Amino acid sequence: MRTSREIRSGQGGFTLAEIMIAIVIFALVIGVAADFFLGQKNAMQKEEIKSEMQQSTRIAFDRMVREMMMMGYGAATDAKILTASPADLKFETYFDTPAKMYSIEYSLEGTRLKRTSQEVVAGTPPPPVVDYIVDNVNSLSFAYFGKKEVPVTDPTKKDDIRHIVVTLDIRSSKPVPGSKPPKYMNMVLKADLYPRNMSEGEAVLDSIPPDPVTGLKVRDTLRNKRLKVTWNKCLSDD
Questions:
Q1: What is the DSSP secondary-structure string of the chain?
Q2: Which of 50-59, 124-133, 156-165 has the lowest mean pLDDT?
Q3: What is the pTM of this model?
C-alpha cells in the first residue's frame, strides 16, 4: 500500500525552467502588444495635431488671401498699397459689411501672424484693431512683381505691383508624439495673387487689337450654329 507521500510525489507539475520560459514568452507578447498600441496611439495623436494645424491655419490664410485679392477696391487714394516690404503688407480695401473703407496690414510679430485693421475716415482715424490670427509661425514673406512679371523690390515703386506671392511657414503647437528630442510638424502655405483692382486707373489703354485667333475649335452640342467672340481693351499690358 502506497503512503500519502508517495502519492504526492507522483503528481505532475512544472519545473523551474518551464516556468521561466513561460514568463519570458508572456513578457515578449505583452511587449509586442504594448508597442503596437503605443504606435497606434501616437499615429492618432499625430493626425489630430496635423488636422488642428491645417484647420486653424487655412482659415486664417484664406482670410488673408481673400482680403488681399480685394485690395484697392474702392480705395480712397490712388495708393492702393500703402506698405510693401518682404515681411509686411498694408493696403486699403472696402468692406460691404460694414460698409466702410479700411486699411489692412499683415505682418509677423514674434511667432504670431498679426492683422491690423483701421477705418479710413476724414480727420482723426479711430484706434487700430489688432488681431493675432495664427500662432507658431516660422516665417511670413511677400514677393512682388509688376508688369511682365518683373520683380518689384523698390518700396517706392509699390504702385507698379500687379502680382503678389505670399508664403506662410508654420509649425505645430505640440511636438510629434514619441519624438526624442521633441520634433514639430511643419506646413508651408503659398498663394499667387493677382489682385483684381490693381490695374484700374491706368492712364493708357491698350489700343492695339489682339492677333487673329488661330487653332480655335468649337463643338456646338446644342446645335445653336452661332458663336460670338468679342475682345475688350486691356487696361494694362500684363
A1: ---HHHHHHTS----HHHHHHHHHHHHHHHHHHHHHHHHHHHHHHHHHHHHHHHHHHHHHHHHHHHHHHTTTTT-SSS--EEEEETTEEEEEEEETTTTEEEEEEEEEETTEEEEEEEE--SSSPPPPEEEEEE-SEEEEEEEEE-GGG-B---GGGGGG--EEEEEEEEE-SSPPTT-SS----EEEEEEEE--TTTTTT-SS---SPPPPP-S-----TT------------SS--
A2: 50-59
A3: 0.66
